[in-house]
Amino acid sequence: MVTSPDFRHVPTGTLAILAQRLRRVFASPTTWRRLVRERGWRRPRLRAHPSKPKVGIRAERPNEIWHIDTTIIRHVDGTKAYVHAIIDNFSRRIPSSRVAGIFNPANTIAVLLDASRASTTGAEQPTGVADGGVENVNWNVDELIHSGLLRRVLAMTELKFSNSMIEAWWRTLKHNWLFLNTLDSVETVRKHVAFYVAEHNERLPQSAFRGQTPDEMYFGNGDGVQAELDAAKKAARQNRLSSNRASSCGRCDPTEKSAAAWRFEGTGRDPRTWLPPGRCPRDVHGQRPVSAFERPAPTTAAYARILSGRGDRAAVDAVSVVENSSPKVQNVVAGSSASVPLRARRHKC
User: Fold this and answer.
1) Nearest Cα to Cα of residue 287 among 246, 257, 259, 322
2) Which residues contact 240 (CB under 8 A, 6 or more apart)?
3) In what order do the strands lie in the sheet with 65-74?
4) How far is 210 from 199, CA to CA, in rounded Å?
């Protein structure tokens, strides 16, 4: 009954009593809940959610769509400041903003008029996307709309999209700048808002525009930014490769050929070209040439495995090292019954 689709609309406590009424199971609701929890039974209550848009509304040119909103900033003494702003959908530019100490819907009219005067394209009236707050829906704003200055669309009411673009900018303004300062008056908030609006418009590049600032997108003078960044990135990569290839540990002669370099002689590949930064040029994948005195000495058992034809690779390598060593080392190894590490000699690196 718990997992049956016929009873998916019945809560678990009610289902326990219903089962008693149907003369099927006589157990308390606590027992039902315990068994459901212990045995991992899942009620068949999959809800079909309506699909939501993944990408918000997008404009094709500046001043086509404006997002209008108001947010509240609390001072350290508990008083409030009201920030009104407009963001352009196409360029993410803030054409107008205003900070006030009281909540007055007339400030929405003021920012709309300021943005309209600063508009560079006056061919078509922009569409203002706003929520249903009283600062956006009042007779003052209605008169402005009837004058033909702009067209108002209510988010999530007349439009299926939300007013998320200006909401995201509020979050960035607050957490990236305002909340990092002491906000003790309206004048302080006004000063910090003006600073961040200028930074946002003129200096901070947007990842959506691949390095262009909102001003460059708004005025159309940043077409060469992407090409400049790509060229600079390519030059920086080449400089980094040249620097890494020419690097040395300071104790080795960079012009001296190492054993690794001799191994790659004739292959057309230079081991230095694929070394990580800071690695000695004599190293190859972190494995520098090891001298005979730095390897552990083979044992007599290793010699026996070699002679019997059952030697493994480690034993073969060890024997080849000893055979190339001095007679004194070979005598020591021949009389050894255990692995005797030889005295390590300091490498040049």
Assistant:
1) 259
2) 277
3) 96-100, 80-88, 65-74, 127-130, 151-154
4) 17
CA-nearest of 161, 177, 181 to 169 is: 177
Question: What is the predicted pLDDT for the residue at 118?
Answer: 83
More confident of the two residues 203 and 210: 203
Q: 204: which 2 tokens?
A: 């901070």
**CA-to-CA distance for 96 and 106, rounded, in angstroms?**
14
If you average pLDDT over every residue of the chain, what do you get? Answer: 78
Per DSSP, the three-state class of 5 is: helix
CATH number of this structure's domain 65-219, picked from the four choices 3.30.56.10, 3.30.930.10, 3.40.190.170, 3.30.420.10: 3.30.420.10
pTM for the predicted model, two decimal places? 0.60
Residues in the chain: 349
Note the helical H segments in 87-224. 106-117, 139-146, 164-176, 186-202, 214-219
Q: Residue 318: pLDDT band by 50, 70, 90 thresholds?
A: low
Nearest alpha-carbon partner for 67 in 135, 164, 138, 148: 164
CA dist 166 → 46, 71, 84, 89, 141 (Å): 34, 10, 10, 9, 19
End-to-end CA distance of the chain: 75
With contact defined as beta carbons under 8 Å apart, do 244 and 275 qualify?
Answer: yes
pLDDT digits (tens, 9 = 90+) for 19-74: 999 999 999 999 999 999 999 998 887 777 777 667 788 899 999 999 999 999 99
Which part of the chain has CATH 3.30.420.10?
65-219
Confidence of residue 140 (pLDDT cuts 50, 70, 90): confident
C-alpha distances in Å from residue 88, one per residue of 59, 141, 163, 202, 213? 9, 19, 12, 14, 13
Compute the average pLDDT of residues 318-324: 52
Residues 6+ apart with CB under 8 A from 264: 270, 271
Q: What is the DSSP letter of 234?
A: H
Banded pLDDT at 343 (limits 50, 70, 90): very low
